[in-house]
Amino acid sequence: MSVLTVVLFTACLILIGALAVAAVAGKLARLDGATYPAACLRAAAAFAAFLTLAAAVTGALAAVLT
């Protein structure tokens, strides 16, 4: 398997994970009684937090493994 394949597969998995986290955060916010705009803001914040965490972990692993 080439390096490009691994990178693209990992990027797809991270994106799917971020979308799942955002969907769950939005749904939980809506069940808690938040308005639709507020639930969307919470979902966007969760999406951004997941991507930030994934980038930080990737950077740390790259620094350790090289």
Keywords:
89% helix; single chain; 66 residues; elongated; 2 helices; mainly alpha
Which term fits the overall shape? elongated
**Number of H/I helices:** 2
Q: How far do the termini sit from each other?
A: 20 Å
Approximately how much helix is present in the residues? over 70%
List the domain count as a whole number.
1
Please indicate the percent range of residues in DSSP E strands (runs of 2 or more): under 5%
Summed over residues and divided by their number, the pLDDT gives a mean of 95
Query: How is the biggest beta sheet arranged?
Result: none
N-to-C series of helices and strands? HH
Low-confidence stretches: none
Evaluate the radius of gyration. 15 Å
Describe this structure as you would to a colleague.
This protein has one domain. 89% of the residues lie in helices and 0% in strands. The protein contains two helices and no strands. The longest helix is centred in the C-terminal third of the chain and has 30 residues, at 36-65. The protein is elongated, with a radius of gyration of 15 Å.
